[in-house]
Amino acid sequence: MQVDLNSDLGESFGRYTLGEDSEIIPLITSANVACGFHASDPLVMKKTVEAAKASGIAVGAHPGYPDLMGFGRRNMVVSDDESYAYTMYQIGALDAFLKARGMKLQHVKPHGAFYNMAAKDRSQSEAICRAIRDYDPELIVMALPSGELYKAAKDMGLRAAAEVFADRAYEEDGTLVNRKKPGAMITDEDESLRRVIRMVKEHKVTAISGKDIDITVDSICVHGDGAKALRFVKKLREGLTAEGVSIKPLREFL
Hints:
Blueprint: E1 2-9, H1 21-24, E2 30-34, H2 42-55, E3 58-62, H3 80-100, E4 107-108, H4 112-120, H5 122-135, E5 140-143, H6 148-155, E6 159-165, H7 189-202, E7 204-206, E8 212-214, E9 219-223, H8 229-242, E10 246-247
Parallel strand pairs: 1-2, 1-9, 1-10, 2-3, 3-4, 4-5, 5-6, 6-9
Antiparallel strand pairs: 7-8
Helix pairs in contact: 2-3, 3-5, 4-5, 5-6, 7-8
């Protein structure tokens, strides 16, 4: 058994610091780095890429809606052309810092509302995947395994990584429970570990309704802005290793 452990990082902005990136980066295998639309700025991107290189972890672009005030978690009505351009623009911005450090971009994972809306909107998903393919067809698309983005990536000949969440609850259709609903967030690290181990070993997770659903796992995400993010990452890494699960970046097995 092998799995990637990822976190959404590089989400500070100017004088505002968010997350515990310096402590989390050495414990994960892939970082989803914000590209300036929902969070981050050029200096934060540069610093995050340098920290990732120092720890030898893989880096992916984490493009979002142009929504700094809402942290990219507000739904926006955008055209497919905009989705394509937003994705292309942000990948290129982050990749400049990677190329300057002799690093190669591993994957692309849309952020927040961009991610959730793409999971349901096939047309938007295809626009995002076209941008990724046009930029570099070797890039991996990280997405919900039940969603349209994952399916679009596969259909368009891209590698797709099935992502699950250690700190989020699921609906019966495999989508994430809206953050505004009670029980949407998993706040207990022991419960999180039990759920993740079951997802990895049995390919099952209990939805918020209480029904067991099937789930595919290539990568496990812990949100870097969560209050217990560092504790979650430590617990998951220790627990998965104890269960005989190898933790590796996607590029080594996908």
